[in-house]
Amino acid sequence: MNLPNKLTLARICLTPVYLILMWAGGDAAWANIAALAVFMAASFTDLLDGKIARSRGLVTNFGKFMDPIADKLLTITAFIVMVDISRMPAWMCVVFVAREFVVSGLRLVAVEQGRVIAAGMLGKVKTVLQMAAVMLLTLNVAPLAAVTEIVLYAAVVMTVWSMADYVWQNRAVLSEKK
C-alpha cells in the first residue's frame, strides 16, 4: 500500500463525508464550507496520486483500477447530491453519468482487444470544469450564481464534447474487424 494508493483510498473515504455534510447541513453556510473543504481535499488527492505514482515509479494495478473508480465515485456522488438538494437539474446529472458509462464501456471493449485507451486532453478539461462546478454548487453563494451556472453549462458541453471525441477517436474499437 504505497502513498498514491493511500491517497486514492483517502478520496474514497472523503466521499461519504462530503455526502453527509451536504445532506445534514442543509443550506447552512458552515456545512457548505466544510463540504467544500472536503471536496477540495479529495480533488487534490486526485491530482497528487497520479503525479506521485508516475514520478516515483509507484504505478500499481490497484491504483490503475481504483483511481478512476474513486474519481467517478466522488464526482457522481456530488452531482447526485446536487440534484437531491435542488441545486442542479437532474438531466445534467444524467449527462455526466451517461458519459462515464460510455467511456468505461469503450475502455472495457478496448481491453478485450488488448488495447489501452489513454485519457485525452478534452477529458481532463471536462474533469476540471466538473470539479469547479461542484465546488461552486457546494459553496452556493448568491453573488456567484451566474458564474456557477456558466461553469455548470460549460461542464455539460465539455462532457458531451469529450464523450463524442472519445468515441470518434476510438471508433475502431467498436468495429467488428479484428
Attribute tags:
single chain, 178 residues, 6 helices, 79% helix, globular
End-to-end distance: 38 Å
Secondary structure category:
mainly alpha
Q: Major beta sheet, specifics?
A: none
Q: Write down how many β-strands occur, each being a DSSP E stretch of 2 or more residues.
A: 0
Instruction: State the order of secondary-structure elements, H for helix, E for strand.
Output: HHHHHH
As a percent range, the share of helical residues equals: over 70%
Radius of gyration: 17 Å
- Unreliable residue stretches: none
What would the principal axes of the Cα set say about the shape?
globular
- What's the overall average pLDDT, rounded? 92
Helix segment tally: 6
Strand content bin: under 5%
Describe the structure.
With 178 residues, the protein is mainly α. 79% of the residues lie in helices and 0% in strands. The chain contains six helices and no strands. The longest helix is centred in the first third of the chain and has 27 residues, at 29-55. The protein is globular and about 55 Å long. It starts with a helix and ends in a 9-residue tail after the last helix. The relative contact order is 0.12. The mean pLDDT is 92.
